[in-house]
Each structure stands twice: as C-alpha cells, then as structure tokens.
C-alpha cells in the first residue's frame, strides 16, 4: 500500500531527505527517531509526498528550500504526471493529503481517503499524521487494517 501526504512548512533546510525537511502538523505526529530499520524501509518505499514542483517526491529524496503552495493552474499542469505515476504503482493507495493537494489526483486513480469528519483543520492534520505514523509503525499493507483505527 502506498500513502500520499501533502508537504507542509519547511524549517529544516539542511535535512537530508524530504521526510525530515517538512515540519508541519502532519509531520510532527511522526516518531521518526523511534522507527526501526524495517519501518524506515517501509516509510521510504511507501510514503509519497505530493509536490507543487514536480507532482510527487519520495520520502527519501532531497528537497530544496521552498514554501509549499499549490495553485489550481499548477495542479492542472501536474495532474497527468501524477496520474501516470500513481497508475503505475499497481498497489492500493491511501490518500492522506490535504484537499488542496488532492487536486493533483485525477478521478481515474483509485484511492482510499479516510473521512475525518467536520473537525477543525489542525485536528484533521493531526489525525492524518497519527494515521500515517500508525501505518509506518505497523507497516500496514491493507485498508482493512486501518478502517477501525481512525
């Protein structure tokens, strides 16, 4: 199972990889320092960060300092690239990205997007981060394993 997330604030401009570069609410819920080697491998293989620069980046890719911001025009421009990439994955996709970054997803791409209800945005971001952390810690490979968790 692959997991899509959105970029967020970036304060670690010297970070060696994307997962350590972003520092927003979702990323603060990750327990990066406590993951074992298998969990880190899962993270680097399965987590995909949607990007306003080139559509998507892997969690282990180098990211250069920028302010994440996705315009509708840029999303339209990148949508075909993202769609082609996601369709090539041939595995289930869990969408934990924001509504803004979900605009990169074409309706032809099958994704499972959890419904966190009508909560304040900061609580939804925390819930997305907690679910991502749960998936990494438990190396989740099926939606069935998370449906009752959140």
Taken as a percent bin, the fraction of beta residues is 5-15%
Order of helices and strands: EHHHEEHEHH
Q: Which range best describes the helical content: under 10%, 10-25%, 25-40%, 40-55%, 55-70% or over 70%? A: 25-40%
- Order of adjacent strands in the largest pleated sheet: 3-2-1-4
Average of per-residue pLDDT values: 90
How would the global form be characterised? Answer: globular
Query: Count the helices. How many?
Result: 6
The N- and C-terminal alpha carbons lie at a distance of 17 Å
Mind summarizing the main beta sheet? 4 strands, mixed
Helices and strands: which structural class?
alpha/beta
As a whole number of angstroms, the C-alpha radius of gyration is 14 Å
Number of strands: 4
Could you provide a short overview of the structure?
With 150 residues, the protein is α/β, with parallel strands linked by helices. It has helices spanning 18-21, 25-28, 37-46, 72-89, 99-102, 121-138, and strands at residues 2-5, 47-51, 55-58, 93-95. It is built from six helices and four strands.
Overview of the structural elements:
By secondary structure, this protein is α/β, with parallel strands linked by helices. It is built from six helices and four strands; from the N terminus they run βαααββαβαα. The protein has a four-stranded mixed beta sheet. A hairpin with a 3-residue loop joins strand 2 (about 45-50) and strand 3 (about 55-60). The longest helix is centred in the middle third of the chain and has 18 residues, at about 70-90. The mean pLDDT is about 90.
């Amino acid at each position: 199972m692959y997991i899509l997330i959105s970029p967020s604030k970036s304060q670690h401009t010297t970070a060696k990889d994307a997962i350590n570069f972003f520092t927003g609410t979702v990323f603060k819920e990750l327990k990066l320092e406590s993951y074992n080697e298998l969990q880190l491998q899962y993270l680097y293989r399965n987590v995909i960060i949607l990007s306003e620069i080139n559509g998507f980046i892997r969690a282990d890719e180098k990211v250069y300092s920028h302010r994440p911001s996705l315009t509708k025009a840029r999303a339209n421009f990148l949508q075909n690239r993202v769609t082609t990439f996601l369709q090539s994955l041939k595995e289930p996709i869990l969408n934990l990205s924001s509504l803004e970054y979900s605009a990169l997803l074409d309706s032809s791409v099958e994704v499972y997007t959890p419904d966190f209800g009508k909560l304040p945005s900061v609580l939804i971001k925390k819930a997305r981060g907690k679910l991502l952390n749960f998936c990494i810690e438990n190396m989740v490979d099926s939606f069935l394993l998370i449906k009752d968790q959140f």
